Amino acid sequence: MKVSNEAIRKEMLEKPMGWLLFEKSYPTVIIQLISMIYNTADTYFVAKINTQSAAAVGVVFSLMSIIQQSDLG
Fold it and tell me: d(Cα 51, Cα 36) in Å, to the nearest integer?
């Protein structure tokens, strides 16, 4: 179901700003929280190997965050 530009414009003009901000941002927030939980668990288990492995996970997580953000926008 495709929404017309006029319907989107009407929604942006008539809905309360706080609700609109929440409605448009919560999917990104949820994705980031899941990603951070995954990274925390990954770092915990990899850190048991050695500190260099934990550092590598941290570097890769930063790169993955940048890639994920570019996919969302």
Answer: 19
Cα–Cα distance for residue pair 53/47, rounded to 1 Å:
6
Among 60, 55, 63, 65, smallest CA distance to 34 is for 65
pLDDT in tens, 33-66: 888 898 888 888 988 999 898 888 888 888 887 8
Asked if 31 contacts 72 with a C-beta cutoff of 8 angstroms, the reply is yes
Tokens of 28: 């990104």
Domain boundaries of the chain, sorted by first residue: 5-72
Q: Rounded to whole angstroms, how far apart are CA atoms 33 and 55?
A: 21
Closest by CA to 72, choosing from 3, 24, 40, 36, is 24
pLDDT tens figures, 15-36 = 898 998 998 889 888 988 888 8
